[in-house]
Amino acid sequence: MENRQSLKLWYVSALRRCNFRCAYCASNQPAIKDRLEWKKPEEADTHQQIVQWITKLPYQIQLRMNSIGEPFTSKGYLDSVAQLSHAENIQFVEILTNGSFAKSQFEAFSKKVNMKKLSLWMTFHHTQIPMETFLAAAMQAQESGASVVVHALIFPDSIDSTIRLKAECKQRGLTFHSVVGFNHNKAYKENSSVIPALTKENWPIIHKLDSGSSVPVLAAAMKPASFECSAGHQYFFISSRGNVYRCKPYSEGGPESALGSALDPQFLPPIRKKKYLVCAHQRSCICVEDHQHLKGIKVKKTKRNSFISLSKIDFE
Ligand code: SF4
Ligand code: SF4
């Protein structure tokens, strides 16, 4: 497997289930109300076909796999993660969780999954779960052999808890990452800016805490057209319907239609020979999964299997 070309894939599935109710939820607070895990039975089939397709690719895959909400609310989804973790071509499979899984649930999951290839991106939602419960879950996952990154969102009312979480992670040997949170749903009415924590008063502490993208990178991401980018060379995006694009913005009214479909077992992502190509997207490229591929961005290697750069994303 080591000699194979590396490929990063970001796949956002159609699963929409969550057990939390964060006021700032960007995904319209998916609930667990359906008897069936997937809204439509065909979505489960599509997901399974996409998983199969990924496991057959002749590359060494670094996979970030999002469900909308919490993956531990779906047994079927977790089974597919376990399946991917045993595939020979998978370097790691990273899933995003809110850390609410029960100890026994994780124990059961750990018997099915290849822990060496499992990566958990664990976001702490300060209004929804006690920090101790969350940290216990993170420690359980890490001690079971998974690669864990604790992620925090910085809001006006979570600055103190983020500082404490960072210290607690350091003490426990957990990798920590934090970014400023966006004011989705106008959750922070008293400060209606897009990034409510970012005030003049808070700036010094935010500057220290935030490990997201630097101001020049964010400025480029707001208007990426004319910047060179390696998406389509070492990275592709897979939509919930299995359509494959060079990146997520290209799947949302970008200048190119889908490159092909993961539902076609014969389809291989057309890896561009040239590493960089000028971006032709006329809108923003706000997700770090995408814009971290802009030319000139340095990405530090870490011990953790993480799809996203764990140090501040900046131009060299
Ligand atoms: S955990 Fe995520 S998906 Fe669930 S309500 Fe909170 S922000 Fe939304
Ligand atoms: S800059 Fe963003 S939108 Fe443009 S090609 Fe790269 S990832 Fe896609």
What is the secondary structure topology, with strand pairs?
Elements: E1 6-17, H1 41-55, E2 60-69, H2 75-85, E3 90-97, H3 103-112, E4 118-124, H4 131-143, E5 147-154, H5 159-172, E6 175-180, H6 203-209, H7 215-222, E7 228-229, E8 235-238, E9 243-245, H8 248-251, E10 260-261, E11 277-278, H9 288-291, E12 297-298, E13 314-315
Parallel strand pairs: 1-2, 1-8, 2-3, 3-4, 4-5, 5-6
Antiparallel strand pairs: 7-11, 8-9, 9-10, 12-13
One iron/sulfur cluster (SF4) is lined by residues 18, 20-22, 25, 27, 29-30, 69-70, 98, 125.
Largest sheet: 9 strands, mixed
Pick out the low-confidence regions: none
Report the mean per-residue pLDDT as an integer: 94
Q: State the end-to-end distance.
A: 31 Å
Kindly name the structural category: alpha/beta
Can you give a write-up of this model?
- The protein is built from nine helices and 13 strands.
- The chain is an alpha/beta fold and 316 residues long.
- The strands form three sheets. It has a nine-stranded mixed beta sheet. Strands 7-11 form a two-stranded antiparallel ribbon.
- Strand 4 (118-124), helix 4 and strand 5 form a beta-alpha-beta unit.
- The two termini are 31 Å apart.
- The model has no long low-confidence stretch (mean pLDDT 94).
- The structure holds iron/sulfur cluster (2 copies).
- Residues 18, 20-22, 25, 27, 29-30, 69-70, 98, 125 line the site of one iron/sulfur cluster (SF4).
